[in-house]
Every structure is written in structure tokens, then in C-alpha cells.
Specification:
Structural class: alpha+beta
Number of strands: 5
Number of helices: 2
Distance between the termini: 24 Å
Shape: globular
Number of domains: 1
Helix content: 10-25%
Radius of gyration: 13 Å
Largest sheet: 5 strands, antiparallel
Mean pLDDT: 86
């Protein structure tokens, strides 16, 4: 069973993580892979509702979609 994605904020920037994988979207609007330990220990954890209130599509500065390879379970061909 796949673990749910969890949400956080790093000084007002969006962070999502699950297991050993974590992503953050900073001021340039691009998602970057970060340390999962950093996501859990350093950033403010949020509920999904709080995350959507801060970064969702109705917010004044919504975050872009995650890259296609984010939170991909298992191996994926780099050609896809």
C-alpha cells in the first residue's frame, strides 16, 4: 500500500514528502528534490487543508504541478 503524501511549509514555500522522497517549490516556482529528513525535521508540517489554503489553485500564488517523476512508485524508463 502506498503511503499518503504529506505537506509542509518552508518559510512560506510549499513542501511535499512521502517516505524517503521530498520536494520543495521555492521563489523561482520550480520544484526541487530535497532531503526527506529536512522536510520532516526542519519545516512546519501542515494538514492537506492548510496546504491547499496556502498553495492551492485558488490562492494568489499557487504552486505549479509536481514533475511527472515525483512520487513515482517503482522504476520508470527515462525515455517516457
Amino acid at each position: 500500500m502506498t503511503k499518503p503524501i504529506k505537506y509542509a511549509s518552508d518559510d512560506g514555500f510549499a513542501v511535499r514528502f512521502r517516505g524517503w522522497e521530498a520536494w520543495a517549490c521555492y521563489a523561482d516556482g520550480k520544484w526541487r528534490k530535497i532531503s526527506a529528513a529536512e522536510a520532516v525535521c526542519k519545516h512546519a508540517l501542515l494538514t492537506e487543508r492548510d496546504y491547499m489554503d496556502m498553495f492551492g489553485p485558488t490562492n494568489r500564488r499557487p504552486v505549479p504541478p509536481l514533475p511527472d517523476h515525483a512520487f513515482c512508485d517503482g522504476w520508470r524508463s527515462p525515455l517516457v
